[in-house]
Amino acid sequence: xxxxxxxxxxxxxxxxxxxxxxxxxxxxxxxxxxxxxxxxxxxxxxxxxxxxxxxxxxxxxxxxxxxxxxxxxxxxxxxxxxxxxxxxxxxxxxxxxxxxxxxxxxxxxxxxxxxxxxxxxxxxxxxxxxxxxxxxxxxxxxxxxxxxxxxxxxxxxxxxxxxxxxxxxxxxxxxxxxxxxxxxxxxxxxxxxxxxxxxxxxxxxxxxxxxxxxxxxxxxx
Length: 221
Description:
Elements: H1 3-26, H2 30-45, H3 49-54, H4 57-65, H5 70-93, H6 97-117, H7 130-137, H8 144-157, H9 160-173, H10 178-191, H11 196-201, H12 206-220
Helix pairs in contact: 1-2, 1-5, 2-5, 4-5, 4-6, 5-6, 6-7, 6-8, 8-9, 9-10, 10-12
């Protein structure tokens, strides 16, 4: 089988699986959906849903990439991120808020890692939306280590105001941390390299960037 045909078949199988899970959730069969997610996780990742949630994104991405081409690794990883998002929704429907948050967080970590590893890639339709995952968790409730990758993701997308929001959440959590302040200074300096049209498209003006940069440089003193 040609590689392109294999990838198309793989994506088709993943799409059908997501549609089946969506159907179970719509029918209110949330535990059945979670059982199906666990089975799919074991098949694709060789680990249970609970084990996947406990893995770091680097370990999980390496597991899903082992022996695979970049295209297959990308699509398998996106599918697991979609499984985690579905698990979060179904756990929430069963009023297990802790499990829901843990699955959303694992989906966010993996999704950010996928975007970082495959920045120029066209991701499959079932790939979770980063903003949706952040919205489900709450920007100011995220672990500290998420803010840096989240800032870079939004910056690469040209969503500069959203990147700034991630930076503000980080600085609110650790206002006197010199590494966090330096991250902010570097961010605003990178933004100054863009023209005014690009900055406005990202919902920031040059004056706002200059003011924020000066403020952070003063805080570093």
